[in-house]
Amino acid sequence: MNKRKWMYAASAAVVILAVTVFFNRGALAMLGFDWFLEGHVEKQLEQTYKPIDGREPIPVSTIDKNQDPFSVLLLGVDQRGKEIGRSDTMIYTVVRPNDGDMLMVSIPRDMYVEIVGKDKEDKITHAYAYGGAGMAMDTVQKFLDAPINYYASINFEGFRNVIDTLGGMSLPIEEDMINDDADHEKFVIKAGQESYNGQDTLNYVRYREDAGGDMNRTERHQIFLGLLMDKAKQMNQWSKIPDLMNIMGENFSTDMRPQQLVDLGQSMLQAKDRNIYSHSLLGSGHRLKNGGPWYYFADEEDLSKVQTMIKSWLNADAPASSLILPDKYTVNKVKEVGSLSSSEEASKQ
Question: Taking the model in full, what pTM does it have?
Answer without folding.
Answer: 0.79
